[in-house]
Write a structure and sequence with these properties.
heterotrimer, A alpha/beta (331), B mainly alpha (567), C alpha+beta (384), B: mainly alpha, 25 helices, C: 384 residues, 6-stranded mixed beta sheet, 5-stranded antiparallel beta sheet, 8 helices, 21% helix
Chain lengths: 331, 567, 384
């Protein structure tokens, strides 16, 4: 099953909308268990806003890294009693794996109108909530500002690049799968990075620290982390490379084993609603629903060129890609 | 009447023995057995697919070799540093001993990744210190710490206090006349150290070595920081890598890899047993503790060396932590103008979970420390003096929960406790109790090893005298043995408390709303890129711990020589 | 109430037989010493009596109670036994008074009764002023006395003393020996005293049990042990007996006999049941030997060593007849003998070791070298 996430053009104007939440056939109530890999503060804001919209629902959150959330889920599956009702995790590849195992419950009535095509599963099992792109972060003191991935991989940047390791991060694995599938970059790009002695660190947080502290002037990093740090004063800039940026969609989905399908559906509704999308926008993300606007860090008129990602292909080639990467970057 | 004589004693001992067997089995064996079951029978169907795929992979054996190498290297370094410092502090007349001990054990409180980061910055191109002395590597040159040697160096520094604490507790029992006998025989202090002190301290030293080894083996933070960039895999990072991979066989592979770590840990215990076998370490005299050796003209030099060590292992990472906690965002240079308390403000007042986490972590670690030593004292009794075969087998498994990455133990705990307990019908999952279980299982060995070392140094006639006085086992344990092994018990409890307070990986999977731990909150901040908040919270943690340790200096009079930082 | 019976007690550690069917009957109030070289099994026996180890065969009865048998084991804390350990085993974290009071506290005795008894026990060992001290501040002798007070305060039915004087200096030993003797007289407690020092055992004990290689060789009063040792090991161990091959020529059935010793005829003591034999062994004491002139019967010998021992000389000589046989005797001052001098030794008494007849080979074996096949390492020099 291929569905492509291609060339989404985001409008620059911020549209003010105060649309009320659509009426619900039956008022959801009871307990809802959410497993998420959102950053702590975002997770708190999301659940708080959801509870305001649905006062009858009590939300219990487990928040951790994507790897930890998936490991907890795997253990719960193995023990035969998954506790989660809904998931909100960073990458579609993990969702795709869950879907393949038959763990996800489809929600055909989900309101996908207005969502960028390709951000949600054609079978309506998971729905991208936002776009998190990966571009080039540079320390403001860096000698140059690479305008493209090809620039970044040039020999003069030898020893000055940090990137998240796809061996340890699902989002980075999608980046690897997306970029190696392109003829203009491909494995040659990663071979050049290797020749430049780029270091692959455990996650985006570590890349941010390395770039902002000047340890490595250049980094492969997700957009919002760079911009949030910049907003707080970190000496960091974010560049959208000319070839385009790979993106993850932080999808939301409900499990087949949910104890409270009504509340789970309400949660998906909320995340995809204008209100939920505006919340994502206020946190500094690019919302999946273009109509609610773009984050303030995007210069007006700025156009983001997304690299198409064939999720099915990424999942299929994942282990081969990781193996090749491990060999390439092995000592 | 002859038949009934002593049945109460026997019943009491048998009950205690079986209770201990049950506790150790539940803490150490049950989760691992459950995990292993997942390894060979994923989803209940027997399959050797994971076993063969993991064991036939070159990556696995590379990681195992690296694990063995870094754990051994780290242990050797930790023992060199820890033992040297313990001997200098314990046997010589250096000044400011209490302050020094205090500073030397504190790094246990600082998360390995914080230490790793501080060291990376120290040796990296942006190092202020190296720039000052003109030795800073050129921009872009590869940091030498991103290597196996770097991992060994940091593991050694991180775990030197473990060796130090166990050895120091042992040195307190050394009687003066044993050293005087050596001096009288014409031996120089160095000879006495080599021929009398160290041989008698073997049990404490071996306990320290065993702990350092298993700590190095199970450490994830340092190889994650230093090994991933250089693609230097060890088993814990390989496990994490497998967890991050997609696919249904994740747990099976993780289980098989865990067994491999467990196997290496067990090798360590066999070695420990071998070192302690058939030798007599008992110190039978009851004389005063020894008088320190005079360093004379070397004293100042030694003191300076020790304080330089302190600066490197404590002050440096602490200052790095402090600096990151005072800037508004990562990378902002710290000036009088940019410095801010806002990070502290946020974690103290705006972030409800941080306060809760503090209370949770404190009560969890304190409870774990107390429960573990309460189990360790009778457990060590049966292990060392009764040599119960069943317990000796179980003893091998106690190391495993500590040798495995915390996330694996957490997975195992989930497998066991997800469903309500049989008979009781109570569910531990999603309560604070499952975290306590994780802590007890993981840190049991930290409390147990020092106590076992203490038993080896104890003259058993002291217990036998009490037995003949009519005291039953529980009474002997409470009134005779506990006071006699108290220094080792405190050392063990302290290790458990400091390590658990700062723990990150077990609770990362086991916490639930309201049951956050400090580790979870720090981890969350770091993952979200909010490392300034993380630094502020970590600083507060260290500050509170220092305050707690200081308060022990002011309160009443606990038995002399029990707290390591009290002369 | 406190009779101690040890019946055919056996204990093995792997293939090693630490106790081999040891039997001993100690009557109420008796002071018995268990004497033997280190490694002979005496400490193993003590640990059996105390109940620290389980036995593999036989049984032990204290008073009317079987405390140890193969299928039955009363734990030490129920045996009402006191032990004074070689290391004293005083608890360093308690004061002297707390050490002594421990057994009473355990037994549920409370103040003021407990305080009174502790005080009395300390008075008994003359340590009244030391109640509040820590053991580490006491001298060796004082520690020993605290250990004694601690073990006696609970009025045990049986007191075991495990080499209690081994760690003390000579002067202190003598005074502690007195102390034990007075103590035994005053309390009338049954005492089992483990030692390797025969002088100590002889001075203190009503009877002495000699052990070697896990076996009990002889139980007898000190004088009987000295005069009539049961076998060559005891003979050689106690009082440095000289064991020589002998031929019993004639017996009178009342404990006297005539023995041919290297061709010399000597009148000796023997068991009434002793029968004439060519292959006997005799135990000679230094006091039975003297240097004689050419006239009286004597055996030719050569002086090996002459040692001055204050008031007398100890002469060690090698007999001309059987090579390797060393004898020793005492000679009053003045004495001009030097190594190499030829002398003649006269013998006026001796003891024919019982049970050595009928063993034809024995005569051919060198004295002192007669060993059981299973014990290659019997130490015949107990004080070595």
């Amino acid at each position: 099953m291929n569905y492509l996430l291609r060339g989404v053009w985001l409008a620059a104007a911020l549209v003010t909308m105060l649309a009320p939440i659509s009426a619900h056939a039956q008022v959801p109530k009871g307990k809802l268990v959410l497993y998420t890999s959102q950053p702590e503060r975002d997770a708190t804001q999301t659940t708080t806003a959801f509870k305001q919209a649905y006062p009858g629902v009590e939300v219990e959150v487990f928040r951790s890294g994507t790897t930890e959330v998936m490991a907890k889920l795997a253990a719960e599956f193995a023990a035969g009693a998954p506790k989660a009702d809904v998931l909100l995790i960073a990458d579609a590849a993990s969702m795709e794996a869950l879907k393949k195992d038959g763990r996800l419950l489809a929600y055909p009535e989900a309101k996908v109108a207005g969502l960028a095509a390709g951000t949600y599963d054609a079978d309506r099992t998971y729905f991208g909530s936002k776009l998190i792109t990966t571009g080039i972060a540079v320390n403001t003191a860096a000698k140059s500002r690479p305008a493209s991935w090809a620039d970044l991989a040039k020999p003069e940047n030898k020893g000055q690049i940090a990137m998240p390791s796809p061996l340890y991060s699902g989002a980075a694995a999608i980046m690897l799968g997306t970029m190696t599938a392109r003829p203009d970059l491909g494995w040659a790009f990663f071979e050049k990075l290797k020749a430049d002695e780029a270091v692959a660190v455990r996650g985006n947080g570590a890349v941010l620290t390395a770039v902002a502290s000047g340890e490595k002037p250049y980094g492969v990093l997700v957009d919002f982390m760079a911009f949030n740090a910049k907003a707080k004063g970190s000496p960091i800039d974010f560049i959208f490379p000319a070839e385009g940026v790979p993106a993850v969609t932080e999808p939301v989905a409900m499990l087949k084993t949910t104890q409270n399908a009504a509340a789970a559906r309400a949660f998906i509704d909320f995340i995809l609603s204008d209100e939920g999308q505006k919340l994502a926008l206020s946190m500094g993300y690019i919302p999946a629903r273009a109509s609610v606007g773009t984050p303030s860090w995007l210069p007006p008129g700025m156009v983001i060129k997304l690299m198409p990602t064939d999720i099915g292909n990424v999942v299929q080639n994942n282990s081969a890609n990781l193996k090749r990467f491990a060999e390439l970057f092995g000592n | 009447m002859a038949d009934t004589a002593g049945w109460r004693e026997r019943a009491e001992e048998t009950a205690l023995l079986w209770a201990l067997v049950a506790i150790v089995a539940i803490l150490s064996l049950l989760p691992l057995a459950r995990l292993l079951f997942e390894g060979v029978a994923p989803g209940g169907r027997f399959s050797t697919a994971a076993l063969t795929s993991v064991l036939s992979s070159d990556t696995t054996w590379t990681a195992a070799r690296h694990s063995l190498l870094t754990a051994s290297g780290g242990t050797v370094l930790a023992v060199l540093i820890g033992a040297t410092v313990a001997v200098l502090v314990g046997l010589t007349d250096i000044r400011g001993r209490n302050t020094f001990v205090f500073c030397f054990v504190l790094p246990l409180m600082i998360a390995p990744q914080v230490v790793a980061l501080a060291w990376l910055q120290l040796f990296g191109p942006s190092s202020t210190l190296l720039k000052m002395i003109g030795l800073a590597p050129a921009m872009g040159s590869r940091n030498p710490l991103y290597s196996g040697q770097g991992i060994i160096l940091l593991l050694g520094v991180q775990y030197a206090p473990l060796v130090f604490l166990t050895l120091r507790a042992g040195l307190r029992t050394l009687p003066q006349e044993l050293l005087e006998a050596g001096l009288a025989a014409g031996a120089k202090p160095a000879t006495i150290l080599r021929t009398i002190v160290l041989p008698l301290m073997t049990p404490a030293l071996v306990a320290g070595i065993a702990l350092a080894f298993v700590s190095c083996l199970g450490n994830f933070g340092i190889p994650a920081f230093l090994g991933i960039p250089g693609n230097y895999l060890v088993l814990p990072t390989l496990i994490y890598q497998r967890l991050a991979g997609l696919g249904p066989s994740v747990l099976s592979e993780v289980a098989v890899l865990s067994c491999l770590i467990g196997f290496i840990a067990v090798l360590g215990i066999f070695l420990q047993d071998l070192m302690l076998r058939r030798r007599d370490f008992r110190i039978t005299t009851t004389s005063n503790a020894m008088r320190p050796f005079e360093l004379a003209r070397w004293r100042l030099a030694v003191e300076i060396a020790l304080w330089i060590l302190t600066i490197v292992v404590l002050v440096l990472p602490l200052v790095a932590l402090l600096l990151s906690s005072l800037v508004p965002a990562v990378g902002v240079p710290l000036t009088m103008k940019s410095a801010t308390w806002s990070n502290y403000d946020y974690v103290l007042f705006d972030h409800a979970a941080a306060k809760r986490a503090f209370v949770n972590s404190f009560s969890l670690s304190a409870t774990a420390a107390v429960v573990i030593v309460l189990v360790a004292v009778p457990l060590a009794y049966f292990l060392v003096w009764r040599r119960s075969r069943l317990l000796r087998v179980l003893n091998l498994v106690t190391e495993m929960p500590y040798a495995l990455p915390g996330v694996v133990l957490a997975i195992a705990a989930i497998l066991v406790f997800l469903k309500p307990l049989p008979v009781l019908g109570v569910t531990l999952y999603n309560t604070v109790w499952i975290i306590l279980f994780g802590y007890l299982a993981r840190f049991l060995v930290l409390g147990l090893r020092p106590v076992i070392g203490g038993y080896y140094q104890l003259d058993r006639t002291l217990e036998e005298a009490a037995q003949l006085a009519g005291a039953r086992l529980l009474r002997r344990l409470a009134t005779i043995i506990l006071p006699l092994v108290a220094p080792m018990v405190i050392a063990g409890a302290l290790l458990v408390f400091l390590t658990a307070f700062n723990e990150l990986t077990v609770s990362a999977l086991l916490w639930s709303s309201g049951a956050e731990t400090l580790g979870v909150v720090v981890f969350s901040f770091q993952q979200g890129g909010d490392s300034t908040y993380a630094a502020a919270l970590a600083m507060l943690t260290v500050a509170v711990t220092i305050a707690l340790m200081l308060s022990t200096l002011l309160t009443g009079k606990p038995a002399r020589g029990v707290l390591p930082w009290r002369g | 109430m406190a009779r101690l019976i040890v019946e055919r007690v056996t204990k093995t550690f792997g293939a090693f037989r630490a106790l081999d069917e040891v039997s001993l009957d100690v009557s109420d109030g008796e002071f018995i010493a268990i004497l033997g070289p280190s490694g002979c099994g005496k400490t193993t026996l003590l640990r059996q009596i105390a109940g620290f180890d389980k036995l593999d065969g036989g049984r032990i009865v204290i008073g009317d109670t079987v405390v140890s048998a193969v299928a039955q084991h009363v734990p030490p804390e129920r045996r009402r036994i006191g032990i004074v350990f070689q290391s004293y085993a005083l608890w360093p974290h308690m004061t002297v008074a707390e050490n002594v009071a421990y057994g009473l506290t355990v037994a549920g005795v409370r103040d003021p009764e407990r305080a009174r008894r502790v005080e009395a026990a300390l008075a008994l060992v003359e340590l009244e002023g030391y109640a509040a001290r820590r053991p580490s501040l006491l001298s060796g002798g004082q520690r020993q006395r605290v250990a004694l007070a601690r073990c006696l305060v609970t009025e045990p039915s049986l007191v075991l003393l495990d080499e209690p004087l081994a760690n003390l200096d000579v002067h202190l030993r003598a005074s502690m020996e007195d102390e034990f003797a007075r103590f035994h007289a005053r309390t009338g407690t049954t005492m089992v005293y483990i030692t390797h020092d025969q002088a100590e055992a002889m001075a203190l004990a009503d009877r002495i049990a000699v052990m070697d290689s896990g076996r009990l060789l002889q139980v007898a009063t000190p004088s009987q042990l000295y005069r009539e040792p049961a076998d060559t090991t005891v003979a050689a161990f106690i009082g440095e007996g000289i064991v020589v091959p002998a031929e019993v020529v004639d017996v009178d059935g009342r404990g006297r006999c005539r023995v041919d010793l290297f061709g010399m005829s000597v009148g000796m003591r023997c068991a009434p049941a002793q029968r004439p034999t060519r292959a006997a062994r005799a135990c000679l004491r230094a006091g039975n030997l003297s240097i004689v002139g050419a006239g009286p019967p004597g055996i030719g010998a050569r002086v090996v060593r002459s040692i001055y021992q204050g008031g007398h000389f100890r002469i060690e000589a090698q007999l001309d007849h059987a090579d390797g046989v060393l004898v020793h005797l005492e000679l009053a001052e003045p004495c001009q003998l030097a190594p190499g001098d030829a002398i003649r030794i006269g013998i006026d008494d001796g003891w024919v070791l019982p049970g050595t007849g009928g063993d034809v080979d024995a005569a051919a074996t060198a004295p002192g070298a007669r060993r059981r096949p299973d014990d290659g390492a019997v130490a015949t020099d107990a004080n070595g």
